[in-house]
Amino acid sequence: MAEITTDVLIIGTGPAGCSCAALLSSYGIDNMVVNRYRWLANTPRAHITNQRTMEVLRDLGHDVEAEAYMQATEQDLMGENVFCESLAGEEIGRMKSWGTHPLSRAEHELSSPSFMNDLPQTFMEPLLFKTACSRGTQSRMSTEYLSHEQDADGVTTTLLDRLSGREFQVQSKYLIGADGGNSLVAEHIDTPVEGQMGVGGSMNILFKADLSKYVAHRPSVLYWVMQPGADVGGIGMGLVRMIRPWNEWLIVWGYDINEPAPEVTPEFATGVARQLVGDPELEIELLSANTWTVNDAYATSMQKGRVFIMGDAAHRHPPSNGLGSNTSIQDSFNLAWKLTAVLKGQAGQALLDTYSDERAPIAKQIVTRANQSIGEFGPIFQALGMTGGTDIELIKQNMDARCDAGPDAEAQRAALRDAIEFKKYEFDAHGVEMNQRYRSTAVVTDGQMEPAFDLDAELHFQPTTWPGARLPHTWIFRGSNGDKVSTLDLCGHGQFTLFTGIGGEAWREAATQVGADFGMAINVHVIGPRQEYVDHVGDWARANEVSDTGCILVRPDHHVAWRADELSEDPKSELARVMNTILAR
Ligand code: FDA
């Protein structure tokens, strides 16, 4: 007999588990989260926090979003992505990244009310955890997941209290494995996985040292050190990553995965730091050092019955593109409202199948992209003549050759420029971050074709209200002279929302009636002159792709569920048809 019961038991307090707990508690769902350690992340692994993730935090509350910005390093200090021989040595090239190039910045600003920033995992996790616990989540630290059994009614999970050594059981309606890249939950549900684990070896060296004189004039989160003879493995070359400007740093350094992981002693760590910074006298305060492996694997299904996996448990990949924590939080945003609708009796169980249908393709996409980004350093090495051997003198000559006069050197310079620019697929891939479109029964297209991308879908975000896409953000205004509000602010918060315009008021009545029948509120916003919200600059009219009498139905996770180009003859039955399909009733 289980000692504890809850609706949803979550294993893991990483970005996936904490965000899921925070969302479920915000939606009024009883949940419990456990972590085998006594506290949250002890190293600042994830840091690049993209706009879509910030929209999830904004949905959790402006206070949550504001605290994230307060703790984060702002976007303006993120973008001078430097390639150099060492921090003190010669700079080889640079690219404006993370939305700081003026063209990219414009796209960022047009896409979202939220800003990209650098928020180390050591700040993100406490923020999400605090939000979850303060809103009702029960948490148990030093508590390890051991096993589970599920039947038609629920899941019985066996946990170990690591303080007392006592095993106990929790009975829940659903179990979520947010237990990271070595997920035991994923193993126990025998998740089908494609790809390979352990394709490279890397080590993290976390230290404090004031490096302002090398970096403050070219602020960036990443400094790539390319030295003749530098150890190339793991993610390749040496990376000096800013944790806090400009006195806390993380070096990422490769090791040969075919050899045992090295012991990172303080002497070794100091040596690596001196080499990459280019200062043989540098003193560092070593905070920690650990090794990790580069993975290239994704789950093709993220659910078995009443058990789900999310985050790194489902997608295991290198840090390139900064997608891990972001994708983990977005997994939660997808699953939390669905669990809520089922637990509140508003939706059928089959709604939960759409979690895997919608998120497993994203897992594949981001694992593929992150691994591809590692390979795309190749042209930079080639352009510098750093490939093909370990003859350090020869490599130096090759690198020096780009400074000569003559057509060969000019071609080498052009190749280097192109190779660095090509890295925008890692460091400025706004489309990868924002273009996620879902296909499942929780989206009703009524046969409307998906709009093709006009520009490169990995680099550029293309807003659309095609069902399955995230609702476009535009600023609209409260009343005729009120303050501005994002269309994304008017939806979400665990509820369905319907947008319409003048002449579409009948949708409001339909939404009220259908909502009452389904036991849920469907919020309605009429946008137009002398309405509650006014589209003074016309951005909403340009973005919404339906006529004023039409409507756009938006899911709690901001994705468009359905749209109608114009008012239908029987709006109530149309809306009921759509909601029945989406909610699997
Ligand atoms: P995560 O691994 O964070 O958490 C797992 C949780 O489960 C932990 O609380 C753990 O203790 C717990 N757990 C595991 N087994 C358990 C058990 N049996 N019982 C109980 N608890 C258990 N991402 C990103 O978005 N932007 C970025 O810039 C970067 N940068 C980056 C740099 C470096 C160097 C690394 C190594 C990684 C990144 N990442 C990243 C990736 C990011 O760190 C990673 O994707 C997320 O931490 C994944 O979050 P999860 O919550 O899925 O797992």
Describe this structure in words.
Helix content is 33%, strand content 25%. A hairpin with a 5-residue loop joins strand 25 and strand 26 (560-564). Dihydroflavine-adenine dinucleotide binds at residues 11-17, 34-37, 45-48, 121, 144-145, 178-180, 184, 204, 252, 292, 311-313, 319, 322-326, 328.
Helix/strand layout:
Layout: E1 4-11, H1 15-26, E2 31-34, E3 48-49, H2 51-60, H3 62-71, E4 73-74, E5 80-84, E6 91-96, H4 102-111, E7 117-118, H5 121-134, E8 138-140, E9 143-150, E10 155-161, E11 166-177, H6 184-188, E12 193-208, H7 212-215, E13 222-225, E14 238-244, E15 248-255, H8 266-277, E16 285-299, E17 303-304, E18 307-309, E19 315-316, H9 324-343, H10 353-375, H11 378-384, H12 392-400, H13 407-422, H14 424-427, H15 430-434, E20 475-478, E21 484-486, E22 496-501, H16 506-518, E23 522-527, E24 533-534, H17 539-543, E25 551-554, E26 560-564, H18 571-582
Parallel strand pairs: 1-2, 1-11, 2-8, 5-13, 11-18, 22-23
Antiparallel strand pairs: 3-7, 4-7, 5-6, 9-10, 10-11, 12-15, 12-16, 13-14, 14-15, 16-19, 17-18, 20-21, 20-24, 22-25, 25-26
The structure holds dihydroflavine-adenine dinucleotide.
The site of dihydroflavine-adenine dinucleotide has 35 residues, from helix 1, strand 9 and helix 9.
